[in-house]
């Protein structure tokens, strides 16, 4: 006999209240008429209910309002972008390695998960708006169907769903009050809008916007290389009055070392695999490893272990450790009218950047002297420190480390681009260009 999943009466009332709050006056009447006709309330013996939920059921909660605004934003964006959430100037590069290497143009559909959840996707397929079959042998009867269970294999999304964002900010991460949050490859912006739910009734698209509604983060930064995506994010931010804490940067992440170094939480929803070649993808991670500061929380999909294995980078355990949530994570939660199941988001991983004494992932070395000075011995970081010391006088390091930097620098190739200019305002003391606790009596350059 088939079993039916059940929920508690508290959750049922909460969902019902959220649904009612999200409907227009006309739709509420239609919905209640349907219930009266379908379930015949007059035939049901009245059962008293004294739970706490009953006392709150007449009012829409803050969570209801947050979810409602998030859905309003998603609806706004749906009117402005294609179904797959991509723009004409975006170039999608099918991966050549890893589990997504079979995602060729013929057998893969791109559907934005923030704009179209599973229910909407099913509706699109039923209405023929998304064709979920393809001919493996042209003009033959060998017809295959897209795998509707594992969406990552055949139906690809470049955005996090609303449920996924709620899982990240509501279920796992701690309070982000006073913190800086970075979404790498923010595209349409869903993460950004959600980070501020403690202050606003808004959540948005891809990662950046949901950060605004769901957290009280001090600053939420979306770095996106596509100009069309950035213009759209700016429009949404202005329309919903989110420009007090959200900043959109139209650059490649490799051009933003100072941003990477200042952020407390960094979110990466597979931002490189479909947009960069294998060699470029590897270089981006080389940059991130050199610039992400110890203690930073990383949220990634897929796991860093999977990425490093595909790119033949050293063990992830040398660089990060698993992040342990400060709160208990429930298997099933209700946030407004949205059900959040932790099992559904097992592919989203959480890490904390280690404070490494020795980092060999890319053949780099970390050197520490007895004053606590730490300098990453990569070519880019060496040139950064060296130029800053010579040009701005803002960085001072001890004689021993200065001597090693100078010797190594003399063997480096000059001309690195996108270096910060002297006098740049670094907002966090910990982000002093890979040099920590650098007060000393001697520069020795």
TrEMBL record:
GO terms for molecular function: methyltransferase activity. InterPro entries: Arsenite_MeTrfase-like, SAM-dependent_MTases_sf. It comes from the Eukaryota. This is Uncharacterized protein. It comes from Frieseomelitta varia.
């Amino acid at each position: 006999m088939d079993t039916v999943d059940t929920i508690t009466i508290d959750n049922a009332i909460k969902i019902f209240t959220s649904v009612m709050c999200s409907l227009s006056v006309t739709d509420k009447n239609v919905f209640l008429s349907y219930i009266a006709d379908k379930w015949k309330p007059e035939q049901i013996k009245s059962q008293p209910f004294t739970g706490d939920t009953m006392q709150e059921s007449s009012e829409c909660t803050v969570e209801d309002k947050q979810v409602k605004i998030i859905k309003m934003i998603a609806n706004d964006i749906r009117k402005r972008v294609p179904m797959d959430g991509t723009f004409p100037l975006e170039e999608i590069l099918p991966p050549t390695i890893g589990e997504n290497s079979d995602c060729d143009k013929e057998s893969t559909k791109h559907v934005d998960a923030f704009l179209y959840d599973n229910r909407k996707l099913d509706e699109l397929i039923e209405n023929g708006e998304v064709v979920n079959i393809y001919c493996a042998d042209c003009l033959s009867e060998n017809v295959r169907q897209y795998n509707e269970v594992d969406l990552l294999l055949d139906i690809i999304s470049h955005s996090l769903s609303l449920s996924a964002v709620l899982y990240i900010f509501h279920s796992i991460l701690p309070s982000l009050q006073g913190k800086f949050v970075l979404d790498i490859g923010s595209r349409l912006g869903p993460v950004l809008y959600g980070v501020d739910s403690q202050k606003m009734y808004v959540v948005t698209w891809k990662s950046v916007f949901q950060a605004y509604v769901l957290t009280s983060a001090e600053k939420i930064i979306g770095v996106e290389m596509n100009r069309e995506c950035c213009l759209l994010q700016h429009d949404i931010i202005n329309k919903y009055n989110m420009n007090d804490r959200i900043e959109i940067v139209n650059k490649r992440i490799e051009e933003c070392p100072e941003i990477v170094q200042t952020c407390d939480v960094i979110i990466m929803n597979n931002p490189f695999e479909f947009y960069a070649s294998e060699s470029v993808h590897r270089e981006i991670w080389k940059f991130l490893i050199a610039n992400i500061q110890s203690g930073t929380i990383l949220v990634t999909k897929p796991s860093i272990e999977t990425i490093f294995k595909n790119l033949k980078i050293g063990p992830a355990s040398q660089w990060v450790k698993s992040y342990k949530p400060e709160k208990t994570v429930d298997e099933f939660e209700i946030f407004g009218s949205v059900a959040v199941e932790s099992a559904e988001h097992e592919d989203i991983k959480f890490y904390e950047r280690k404070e490494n004494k020795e980092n060999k992932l890319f053949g780099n070395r970390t050197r520490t002297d007895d004053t606590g000075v730490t300098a990453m011995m990569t070519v880019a970081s060496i040139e950064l420190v060296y130029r800053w010391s010579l040009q701005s006088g803002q960085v001072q390091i001890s004689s021993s480390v200065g001597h090693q930097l100078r010797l190594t620098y003399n063997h480096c190739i000059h001309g690195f681009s996108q270096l910060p200019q002297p006098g740049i305002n670094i907002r966090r003391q910990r982000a002093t260009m890979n040099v920590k606790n650098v007060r000393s009596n001697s520069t020795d350059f």
